[in-house]
Design brief:
- By secondary structure, this protein is an alpha+beta fold.
- The chain is 36% helix and 15% strand.
- It folds into 3 domains: 137 residues, no CATH class; 57 residues, no CATH class; 31 residues, no CATH class.
- The protein is built from 8 helices and 8 strands, in the order βββααβαββββααααα.
- It has a 4-stranded antiparallel β-sheet with strand order 2-3-1-4. Strands 5-6 form a two-stranded antiparallel sheet.
């Protein structure tokens, strides 16, 4: 006996934190459960043949694909629980199956889009049908692929995943006047060990630290540049000027050392 599809409104689900609403426009989405063989459908769906496969199709109208995915999950769970309680249930074959194995929601508004911040686990990007998966993979230029990883109980399983890990910058980290990390010579750990060893050797010989030595060199170079530009008097001239001022002061007349 063939049943007529009937739309039953479900309570709306607030979108989780970090998952933006994709649209404020009401759209009708097609929720489909793939069947191994033709089976009588629940009252809320219709048995159809789409692309050569038997499916149960149910239509829902809501704002955004995220809401449609939520409703699809609730419907799937209600059918699966019903199948566990009674062998006469039309959905008893769903017992033991996960939603991503046979449940899809279409994307009539192209709400699932590829981007550098694409998040496979959010509702809007899950339970994708074949057509949407092919479109998004093509948009990603190979950066996304079908997620075929094992299912983790209690966790949502995405339809897509990143094909490659994000590139990590392996260039040396520069601090102050030197480079501590050189990937061609052992990496950060070995470079830091050598730096600590050199510092200990300087301290043992009562030599100034690397930082003090570098600061002293920078100071000498600065003095040279200032002298070359005439911004600093020569040391001899500056010393003679100080002595002349002291010899003419009141304290100089009373001091025997300065008189001598």
């Amino acid at each position: 006996m063939k049943h007529t599809a009937k739309w039953i409104p479900l309570p709306s689900q607030p979108i989780s934190e970090g998952e933006a609403a994709t649209t404020n426009r009401l759209r009708t989405y097609s929720i489909r459960i793939k069947l191994d063989t033709p089976r009588p459908s629940p009252i809320t769906a219709t048995t159809r043949i789409i692309d050569g496969e038997f499916v149960w199709e149910r239509l829902v109208t809501c704002k955004g694909r995220s809401q449609a995915v939520y409703r699809a999950g609730k419907w799937f769970q209600s059918l699966r629980v019903g199948g566990a309680k009674s062998e006469k249930s039309v959905a008893r074959f769903l017992v033991g199956k996960e939603s991503h194995e046979c449940l899809t929601v279409d994307d009539v508004g192209n709400e699932c889009l590829y981007g550098s911040n694409f998040k496979p686990y959010i509702s809007n990007n899950r339970l994708l049908d074949k057509e949407t998966i092919e479109r998004v993979i093509e948009e990603s230029k190979g950066n996304l692929k079908i997620d075929d990883t094992p299912v983790v109980k209690g966790q949502a399983h995405p339809s897509l995943k990143w094909a490659t890990a994000k590139k990590v910058n392996t260039l040396p980290i520069k601090i102050g006047f030197s480079t501590y990390a050189d990937p061609t010579k052992g990496g950060m750990k070995e470079s830091m060990y050598k730096a600590a060893k050199r510092s200990a050797a300087r301290k043992k010989k009562n030599e100034p630290s690397w930082f003090e030595d570098a600061r002293s060199l920078e100071s000498r170079l600065l003095i040279r540049r200032m002298k070359a530009k005439g911004l600093l008097e020569r040391g001899e001239t500056y010393t003679e000027d100080i002595l002349n001022r002291l010899s003419k002061s009141k304290h100089a007349k009373k001091s025997p050392k300065l008189k001598a």
